[in-house]
Amino acid sequence: MPALCLAAGIATGRPLSLPWLLAVLAVLLAATWLTARRPRVQTVGIWLCFGGLGMVVAPGDDAQADDGMWTEAVVASAPADRPKTVMAVLLLPATGEQRHCYFTKPWTAPAIGSSLLVRIRDGHFIGHDDWQPGGDGFNRLSRWQRLRLRALKWRQHIAERLTSDGTDGAADRDALAVLVAMTLGDKSALTKELRDVYAVSGASHILALSGLHLGIIYMFLTFLTLGRRRRWLVQVLLVLAVWAFALLTGLSTSIVRAAIMITVYSLFALGGRRHASLGVLSFTALVMLLADSRSLFDVGFQLSFMSMVGILLFVPLMEGLTPVRWIMAHPVTHWLFGLLAVSLAAQLGTAPLVAYYFGRFPLWFLLTNLVVVPLATLILFGTLFTLAVPALAGALLWLVGIMNTALAGLAALPLASIEGLHPSLLQVAMMYVVVAVAYAMAVMAWGNRRWC
């Protein structure tokens, strides 16, 4: 509830000026402190305090760069080719903005971290005569932003070396582009056709680095420690490795969420304490929203957390349908059932948002996940082994090629995806009400049943 109230406060914005909001929050804190003898009233007061805190940290009316005026900018992404333009993300140190800008072709993209002087028109478009190298934009960024840009520059260098060597034909280039996206989070080499195949088949989450990828890497590193989870040095090294990978891949929202949760799990492992997964997820949301309230409006943030909420709520109910004796007798079938349960639960959590933001819903997502999740696990493990044995690179690309071919076949199936969905915010909210009601009915029907 504190996380939900904080998010609600951020979404509400600032109905009052900041001094008045701080005054109201101080009154709420005092009133909550004085109601210690009434626990239920104090609980409501705590929720209201978090809601008020959300309004305080909510992004205000930030200054924006004026259209047509020269301003300093820093390149913050690899260029993405479009039919008539080249898209790149620019950081504007003067206003703190991050803009997706479109440069008129032909345009030779400067390296990530390069300082530019730009003149932005219509909010996003930059013509041939509207930019030039120079300025001191990079040095005006914060240390954290400069560190992140250096990591992104290193990632781009690694990706360019991988995609420029050892590929013969379009199939190999596509396989290598998918491999780079899955391991480094750089999707600039993906063709539009390949993106469409993954989107229609319901496998786009494989291309976007997420908790699945980071969890597999954490499992591999834990395996190398021979299960010595209680040793503090091992846990520190594991957490440092996780955050180093998160920094290298650009600190996407889903990766940061997974890294924070792994860090919390490691702390619990050191203390030998039990944990509640939903509580850890809520704590992670609190940390990320307090660090940057704009994360609430990020599509990746919403999809990442809603998929985890769906998994944490619905998977235990679905697993409760299988008797313990049957599980012990059929481990492989139970694994397949668990994979389907996770896929269905994640879709229940994200389907309304996917329809709202992307206007489509893949119908064969269960079959898709039966194919891509095992293959993605093998590919990520294979990538880690390939770092030690480079001769395995050919076999790894062959495995990625199999996944691409399988997804192309799934995307070509009849009714692979429902297109043209454009629900309103009210309709999205009502869909989540339906999901919540379905969860409540499932809990009442069989949530407390036990089999022996």
What would a concise description of this structure say?
The radius of gyration is 24 Å and the shape is globular. The chain is an alpha+beta fold and about 450 residues long. It is about 65% helix and about 10% strand.
Alpha carbon gyration radius:
24 Å
Instruction: Give the overall form.
Output: globular
Q: Give the biggest sheet.
A: 7 strands, mixed
Q: How much helicity do the residues have?
A: 55-70%
Beta-strand residue fraction: 5-15%
**Helical/strand content category:** alpha+beta
Low-confidence stretches: none
State the order of secondary-structure elements, H for helix, E for strand: HHHEEEEEEEHHHHHHHHHHHEHHEH
What is the tally of helical segments?
17
Q: How many individual β-strands?
A: 9
Global mean pLDDT: 80
Give the termini separation: 34 Å
Structure characterization notes:
- The protein is an alpha+beta fold and 452 residues long.
- The protein is 63% helix and 9% strand.
- It is built from 17 helices and nine strands.
- The chain has helices at 2-12, 18-34, 39-57, 143-163, 169-184, 192-201, 204-207, 211-224, 232-248, 253-271, 277-291, 299-319, 324-329, 331-358, 365-388, 393-411, 425-447, and strands at 70-75, 80-81, 85-92, 97-104, 115-119, 125-126, 131-133, 360-362, 417-419.
- β3 and β4 (97-104) form a beta hairpin.
- α2 packs antiparallel against α3, α9 runs antiparallel to α10 and α15 (365-388) runs antiparallel to α16 (393-411).
